[in-house]
TrEMBL record:
The chain crosses the membrane at residues 6-27, 48-66, 72-89, 101-133, 153-183, 195-215, 221-240, 273-290, 296-315. It holds the Pfam family Glycos_transf_4. Its main location: membrane. InterPro entries: Glycosyl_transferase_4. The keyword Membrane applies. It comes from Lysobacter soyae. Keywords: Cell membrane, Membrane, Transferase, Transmembrane, Transmembrane helix. This is Glycosyltransferase family 4 protein. It is found in: Cell membrane. It is a multi-pass membrane protein.
Length: 324
């Protein structure tokens, strides 16, 4: 058994035990998500299970930051604490959008500063972190979808990132997601909550930033963008559609393609599995183009995102998402 597999298993077991503890806590505190017209579930379910992922990853980051003496690891840990902290508070009582956004901005700013990438790339890291935190919040609406997408990304990152710190973080992140998933899919015994979804998005940004630092440019980032396509396409085009229709795009809704599909199917399972299959396909493409000419990678990435965007548009146009 390889050391990587051992660490994945350790992180998964720890996350599983902590998820069980969080279920008990949530039920005792009455932290339940009730069904409603802006929800995709049919019965009251505990929330805040993402805390298990946060605790496992934060512990790993604390160890790595002490081991590596890395400002980047310290900034990543601080960002996790900020994003998870404000999410945990929001899971207990609704916080203002402004307060949550301030925490996201500070976390993203710390990450960009610690990267040492300069104004241009640092600015892009900052924007990516804020965007990904909120993309994962928007897309965490059915059983298993947020953790499974993050797991695929983390798995690919653990293969592609060569430096010790980001590789170890990706491995721990993967294990934590896998440990949480059995409690959230196919039937949800607990929801991830804002404490988890926002943190997953931030950790994706951390690993993208690490790839940018490791490669000394964007070449290392491009392959990692392939498995992100299902989330970024659905979130991005849905957001633009809502803005065009002058809706309150920052509020909860059920108009993402994955949400409409789940209602039509009458089950979360086929939708989560479909998005998982797309993410895995993206990861396979990323591994296939790794090391090839940069222009070929760019063309492949463009075609991949264009294909999924076309699929999104067809589903919407032809009445699949008729409730938009």
């Amino acid at each position: 058994m390889t050391p990587t597999l051992v660490w994945v298993m350790v992180a998964a077991i720890a996350a599983g035990v902590l998820t069980l503890a969080t279920i008990v806590y949530a039920r005792r505190r009455g932290l339940l998500d009730e069904p409603g017209e802006r929800r995709s579930h049919a019965e009251a379910t505990p929330r805040g299970g993402g805390l298990a992922i946060v605790l496992v990853v934060a512990t790993g980051l604390a160890y790595l930051s002490g081991l590596e003496k890395s400002p980047f690891a310290v900034a990543a840990l601080a960002g996790v604490v900020l994003v998870a902290g404000v999410g945990w508070l929001d899971d207990h009582r609704d916080l203002s959008i402004r307060l949550r956004l301030i925490a996201h901005i500070v976390a993203a700013g710390l990450l960009a500063w610690a990267s040492g990438l300069g104004p241009l790339w640092g600015g892009l890291v900052f924007i990516a972190a804020v965007v990904l935190i909120n993309v994962w919040n928007f897309m965490d609406g059915i059983n298993g979808i947020a953790a499974s997408q993050a797991a695929v990304f983390a798995g690919l990152a653990s293969v592609l990132l060569g430096l010790a710190l980001p590789h170890a973080l990706a491995v721990i992140f993967l294990g934590a997601c896998l440990g949480f998933l059995p409690f959230n899919f196919p039937k949800a015994r607990i929801f991830m909550g804002d404490v988890g979804s926002g943190t997953l998005g931030f950790l994706v940004a951390v690993l993208l930033c690490a790839a940018l630092m490791e490669a000394g440019g964007y070449r290392g980032v491009l392959p990692l963008l392939f498995p992100l396509a299902p989330f970024l396409v659905d979130a991005g085009w849905t957001l633009l559609a809502r803005m065009r229709q002058r809706e309150r795009w920052w509020t909860a809704h059920v108009t993402h393609v994955y949400q409409v599909w789940a209602r039509i199917a009458g089950s979360h399972v086929p939708v989560t599995l479909a998005y998982l299959s797309l993410a895995l396909a993206g990861a396979a493409i990323a591994l296939g183009v790794q090391g090839m000419d940069i222009n070929f990678i760019k063309i492949s990435l463009t075609l991949w995102y264009t294909s999924l965007s076309l699929a999104w548009w067809i589903l919407r146009k032809q009445g699949f998402a008729r409730t938009f």
